[in-house]
Amino acid sequence: MTIQTNHPTLASLEYLPYLDPEGEINNTFQGQVGVYAIFDQNQQLQFIGYSRDIYLSLKQHLIRQPDRCYWFKVQTIARPSRTILEEIRENWIAENGSIPVGNSSALETWTQPINVKNMMLDREKEDYEKAAGDELSQIKVLKKIARRVEAEILSILAQRGLKEQLRFNPKLKETGLLDLK
C-alpha cells in the first residue's frame, strides 16, 4: 500500500475529550465521515476506526468500552472513500508502532453489540438453563440480564459525569445483545 503524506499524523492531532463540560458526548463530528482514534484516561491508544458518522460510532464505543473511552483524535474527510479511510487508519497504526488492542484481540468488544450471555451471574445461568426448551422464558431471562448490564454501564457513565440520555435497542435485548438504538 502506498503511504500518502498529505494526511495528518496521529501525533499532530489534538486530544478531544469524550464528554463535554455539560456531560454530553462530544457531538462536533455528528454526520461527518472520517477516521478516529480512541484513548483511555491516560491517553493510551485503545482503538482506531473509521465511520460515516463519527459521533454515532463514538457513542457505540462508549457504551461498549466505558472504561477505555476518555479521549479521541479525529480526521474528517470531505468525500467518503473507504480507500482513503483505510489508508489513514493503517498509517496511524504504523505510526503507533503496534496494533492497538481494540484493533486486534479485543476487536469484537469494540465493534459488535455487547453479548450479555457472556456476563451472566451464576444464578442467571441457572435461571437460563431452567428455562431451556421454553423460548419465552429464556427471552425474559435474557432481557433481565441485559437490563442489569445496561444499568451497570449507565452507572459507570453517570459516575464519569454523563448526563446525555442513551437509548438501547429493546429488540436486541431479547437476543441477549446490547447496543444503542
Plain-language structure description:
- With 181 residues, this protein is α+β, with helices and mostly antiparallel strands.
- The protein contains six helices and six strands, in the order E-E-E-H-E-H-H-E-H-H-H-E.
- A hairpin with a 5-residue loop joins strand 2 and strand 3.
- Helix 4 (122-130) packs antiparallel against helix 5 (135-159).
- Helix content is 38%, strand content 14%.
- A four-stranded antiparallel β-sheet has the order 1-4-2-3, with helices on both faces. It has a two-stranded antiparallel sheet with strand order 5-6.
- It folds into two domains: 16-111, GIY-YIG endonuclease, CATH 3.40.1440; 114-178, no CATH class.
Number of helices: 6
Do you know the CATH architecture of the largest domain?
3-Layer(aba) Sandwich
Shape by Cα distribution: elongated
Assembly state: single chain
Could you tell me the CATH topology label of the largest domain. Answer: GIY-YIG endonuclease
The overall average pLDDT, rounded, is: 94
Low-pLDDT regions: 1-5
Q: If strands are numbered along the chain, what order do they take across the biggest sheet? A: 1-4-2-3
